[in-house]
Amino acid sequence: MSISILLVEDDRPIADNVILALARDNMACRHVTLVAEALALLRQGGFDLAILDVGLPDGNGFDLCRALRGFSDIPVIFLTARADEIDRVVGLEIGADDYVLKPFSPRELAARVRTILRRARVAAPDTPATPAAAPAFIDIDAERARVLCLGQPLDLSRTEYLMLKAMAARPEKVFSRAELMDAAGLAEASLERSVDTHIKGLRAKLTVLAPRHDPIRTHRGLGYSLAREP
Ligand code: CA
User: Fold this and answer.
1) Residue 56 CA to ligand 1 centre (angstroms)
2) Beta-sheet pairing, 98-101 with 76-80
3) How far is CA 111 from the centre of its chain?
4) Which among 50, 135, 146, 224 is least surrounded, fewest beta carbons within 10 Å?
5) Cβ contacts of 137 within 8 Å, gap of 6 or more
């Protein structure tokens, strides 16, 4: 079975190296330099994975990835030159699968592509097994760092995601603010009150998708818990 990769990169030498490394690994690569071209091709389908540069002549890779997620689940790897972009890239909000920091070894990139495709294949057979089940109230896809609420994607900040993930792993457990700060990797110096702010944001986002539910319970003086069934 042949593997088809879409590469969106406007730096010609980088693109050439990636195409070569993928070809050596028997992967076919279609290369474009524009967001618009990429979207048109991705809509046609047929790609197993997309490799996206962040800064592109007619837009950026983040918006491209967001648009792609509206119609496709194919894995996405970002090429980024800036370490400070990584938080966005690993993409709580963006839905990417991996990133490679420039400059990178094209051979290493090809190896990552292989790994991600293997992972995607392993995960795939589960999908048809549960066709008719109603969407879960909260469904956490830790692999992709994405959360679905009643089947709809929730656009969470990193902190909100990590707090919700911790609470969803142990429904009904009352989490103290300190525990939630820990779960979200907040520094000890942060005020416990900042947990309240993040929880408030999380609640507001859940309310948009599920107005009649309020699954996060406040335990006065103790902390918060997530209801098993809202
Ligand atoms: Ca670029």
Assistant:
1) 5
2) parallel
3) 20
4) 135
5) 149, 150, 210, 213, 215, 229, 230
Q: What is the Å distance from ligand 1's center to 77 Cα?
A: 14
pTM: predicted TM-score of the whole model, two decimal places: 0.54
- Check residue 26 and give left, alpha or beta (phi > 0: left; psi -120 to 50: alpha): left
Backbone angles phi and psi of 218, in degrees to 5? -95, 130
For residue 169, what are the domain limits? 138-226
pLDDT at 131: 45
Give pLDDT, residue 2. Answer: 84
**Hey, CA dihedral for 76, 36, 92, 134, is it positive or negative?**
negative
**pLDDT < 70 regions, the chain:** 1, 87-93, 123-135, 188-190, 230
Task: Provide the pLDDT for residue 224.
Answer: 92
> Is residue 118 domain-shared with residue 220, that is, in the same domain?
no
Q: Quick one: tokens of 125?
A: 């057979």
Question: Looking at residue 13, which CATH number applies to its domain?
Answer: 3.40.50.2300
What is the CATH classification number for the domain harbouring 205?
1.10.10.10
Q: How far is the CA of 79 from the centre of ligand 1 (A)?
A: 9
Task: For residue 204, tell me if it sits in a domain.
Answer: yes
Report pLDDT for 111: 93
* Ligand 1 ion: residues within 5 Å (CB): 10, 53, 55
**Tens of pLDDT, residues 6-36:** 999 999 999 999 999 999 999 999 999 999 9
Verify that 67 and 30 share a domain, yes or no.
Answer: yes
| 145 shares its domain with 118 | no
Cα(16) to ligand 1 centroid in Å equals: 14
Which pLDDT score, from 0 to 100, does residue 135 have? 65
